[in-house]
Amino acid sequence: MLKHPVSRRKFLKDAVSVAAIGTLGSLVVDRAYAADAITATEWGGSYIDEVQKIAAKQSDVKINWQLYSGGAALILPKIKATWPNPGIDLVAGWDLSMQAIAREGWAEPVTVEKVPNLADIPKKLLIKDGAGNVINIPRTISSIFWFYRADKAPFEITKIDDLLDPRLAGKICFPAPSINSNIQMIGLALHRGGDERNMEPAWDFVKELARSGNIGRVATDGSDLSNSISSGETCISLTNSTGAIEMGRAFKLKNLNKMDPESGFRTFLYQEGWCVLKGEHADAAFKFANFAINAGNNEEFNRKISGIPVNIKATTSDEVRPFVFNSEEMDRYIYIPDWTYVSEQANAWMKRWEQEVMPLL
Predict the structure, then answer these.
(1) What is the pTM of this model?
(2) Among 69, 202, 207, 335, which one is most buried in terms of CB atoms within 10 A?
(3) How far apart are CA 332 and CA 334, in angstroms?
(4) How many angstroms separate the CA atoms of 347 and 178, rounded?
(5) Is 155 in a helix, a strand, or coil?
(6) CATH no. for residue 119?
(7) What is the DSSP string of 79-148?
């Protein structure tokens, strides 16, 4: 398991260089008879649309899709409460949730024998559990960063301290700690001399922000954020490259993903993928995941969700290239936190938010 943020930065930097050159609702895929059936979790929007299209290309595995309501990490307590029979076979997630699954020992080990197309995925993207077993099947590289609608912002925003400017009264859509794994506050901590292990500077900043009246919406999921920004209720928040590209097609956005570190705006790099949970349907889950990450499917899926493909035989779309970082840019703009530590703080951070920040809003 990856435990040190420096090695994690190098791990993703190398991977990008190769790759780029709780309530659930169900959607069932209706197709002709399939030999195996699995239950898989997925994000909504373009994610579920595109993964269903890929699933429709094959007939070996029938899939019952369960959609996330809120962040992917919210599925973890449900799995824990129902383990060893969670009723889920294939879990979509990202660094934080996959690290948590590795720590709990829920994942079936991934091998090239089970997932032959793993041979075309950079090894540096593979997450291991405490026993040294690979537990993830990568599919996308992305990043999260601040952005704003240039047509709605009252002035040009160039530094994180601008969030306190009274001209932004009610114009900030601030994500709750339950989404983005609270990297929005980790960024505030970095700006004021802290980090994920020293969050007091971030709590001071966000309380000041709450008192200012500049937070007009607290987002609890991606739909909250996109609806608030799209409607013009608020004009600045954080998003990933997928969200930035999709909203950028309709609005004039300023993406703050490659800003001088002294500005306080930092970009956080992460990967998305799947974990196959231990159980009787593991082989079928591996079969579908292997099909989904072949070069053609991985390229198509990421082109449609505006992500960076992980299969080295796939190509990156022109639309995504502004969100790809070379080695020099990785060193300058990117911060990769200790995801294992961050995953352990989720409940405590959310509780503190509810007790100390929400009353100020």
Answers:
(1) 0.73
(2) 202
(3) 6
(4) 8
(5) coil
(6) 3.40.190.10
(7) HHHHTT--S-SEEEEEHHHHHHHHHHT-BPPP-TTT-GGGGGS-GGG--B-TTS-B--EEEEEEEEEEEE
Beta strands in the chain (DSSP E): 25-28, 36-42, 61-67, 90-94, 137-149, 172-175, 215-219, 236-240, 253-255, 268-276, 308-309
Q: Could you give the CA distance from residue 317 to residue 302 in angstroms, rounded to a whole number?
A: 8
**Total domains in the fold of the chain:** 2
Tokens representing 141 are 């590289």
Give the domain range for residue 44.
Answer: 36-141+270-334
- Report the alpha-carbon angle 198-327-329, nearest 5: 65
| Cα–Cα distance, 170 to 166 (Å, whole number) | 9
Q: 345 and 199: one domain?
A: yes
Q: Does 276 lie in the same domain as 263?
A: no
Look up residue 195 and give its DSSP letter. Answer: B
Assign 3-state DSSP to the chain and report helix, strand, coil percentages, each to 5. 45, 20, 35
In a domain? residue 6: no
Pair 67, 44: CB distance under 8 Å: yes
The residue count for the chain: 361
Q: How far is Cα 194 from Cα 173, in angstroms, rounded to an integer?
A: 23
202 and 238 housed in the same domain: yes
Claim to verify: residue 235 and residue 348 sit in the same structural domain? yes
User: What count of other Cβ atoms lies within 10 Å of the Cβ of residue 340?
Assistant: 20
Question: Nearest Cα to 153, choosing from 178, 172, 135?
Answer: 172
Over the chain, what is the mean pLDDT? 89
Q: What is the pLDDT of residues 227-282, one digit of tens each?
A: 999 999 999 999 998 889 989 999 999 999 999 999 999 999 889 999 999 999 99
Name 189's Cβ contacts closer than 8 Å, sequence gap at least 6: 195, 196, 198, 199, 200, 201, 202, 205
pLDDT digits (tens, 9 = 90+) for 316-334: 888 898 998 887 888 899 9
With the C-alpha atoms ordered 296, 300, 302, 308, is the resulting torsion angle positive or negative? positive
Tokens of 142: 């992305």
